[in-house]
C-alpha cells in the first residue's frame, strides 16, 4: 500500500534522526532510544562470535580503583570503558575519597546520579538553581543514598580522617562530567572576566589557578584550603545560575 506524501516525509525524518543519533562525535543531550535489545559496536559487526558473556562483563570497576589515601579517585564504567552499555542508559562509578579530599563542584549534563556510601562518611551538597541557588546538604553514613538531579551543580567531600568509599549510578551510558573549577579557571577565560564575575581581585584568581595546578600533599593543610575555596566557587556559580533562570 502506498503511503501518503505526509507519512513518507514523517518516516524519512524519523530515519534521518535515527542515523544522526548513531553518528560518532554527535553531541547529545541524553541517550538515544534504540530499536534493538543492545548495540553492537562497529568493530565487532564483522565477527558476531565476540558477542558472548565476556562482551557483557566488566571487571575493572573495583579492581581498577585501589584508592590513593592522599587523593580523590574515581573509576568509571561508562560506554567508553564498557561498550555493552551503549543504548542502555545506565553507567556506574566507584569513588574513593582520601581523608580531607573533595570531589569538586561539577555537573553531569546527561544524567542524574544516585550515590551510595559504602564506607566512612561523606558531606554532600547540591545547588538548587530553581530556588535562588539554595544549597541542599547532607552528611551521609555508610548505607545512605543521595540523588543529584541531572544538570545540577553538586559536590562530595570527606571531612573525616579515614578513607571513604561510594558507588554512583547514572541514568545514561555517557553521563559526562563538567568540573566547574577546571572549566572556569583552566580554560583560558580572561582574568578580568573572572574577577568581575566573582566580585574578587586578581590575587584571588591567581591563587585559585595556582591551587588547581598543584596536587595536594597527604595530610597537608592546602587540601582543606582548596576545598574551601572550591566550595566558595560553587556557591558563586549557583547564585549565577539562579540569576540567569
From TrEMBL:
Span of domain Cupin type-1: 59-206
GO molecular function: manganese ion binding
Domain of life assignment: Eukaryota
Residues that bind Mn(2+): 106, 108, 113, 154
Entries under Pfam families matching the protein: Cupin_1 (PF00190)
Secretion signal span: 1-29
Primary location class: secreted
Subcellular location(s) per record: Secreted, Extracellular space, Apoplast
Coiled-coil region list: none
SUPFAM superfamilies listed in its UniProt record: RmlC-like cupins
Entries under Gene3D superfamilies matching the protein: Jelly Rolls (2.60.120.10)
One GO cellular component term: apoplast
Binding site for oxalate: 103, 108, 113
The entry's keywords: Apoplast, Glycoprotein, Manganese, Metal-binding, Secreted, Signal
Subunit structure comment from the entry: Oligomer (believed to be a pentamer but probably hexamer).
Cited PANTHER family: GERMIN-LIKE PROTEIN SUBFAMILY 3 MEMBER 3 (PTHR31238)
Task performed by this protein: May play a role in plant defense. Probably has no oxalate oxidase activity even if the active site is conserved.
Family, similarity comment: Belongs to the germin family.
Name this polypeptide is given: Germin-like protein
